[in-house]
Amino acid sequence: MTARVRAKKAALLSSDVYERMLQMEIPQIARVLGEGAYKAEILALATKVSGVDLIERATSRNLAAIYTQIIEFSEGELRQMIAWYLDRFDVQNVKTIVRGKLFGATTEEVLEDMVPAGSMRESFLQA
Q: Which of 13, 34, 49, 96 could form a disulfide with 42 if both were Cys (CB 3.0 to 4.6 A apart)?
């Protein structure tokens, strides 16, 4: 388990890449992210959104995918502890749905702000 999580940590952006990205424009940042670990998410979302929304949604989807992978290869008590930690995303997502309904947001607007990283799957949250 430790080796797998360390491998995930090694895939994170290094501090020098992050510093360079701070000096870039939004399209350049999206291009850099699209060349790395966020490629699948950037490609999937590029036809639907652009700019800051593309970066935010791609990084949120990637975060959810990584947490899902970590939960899947963990077991026993550790799996339960990780699930409890990730329950905060479920609470945040439910609050987002309720706020969206109260303020008349569209389904797409609500889905933009959700991070399906907890035990509630994206299909369940969409329903």
A: 34
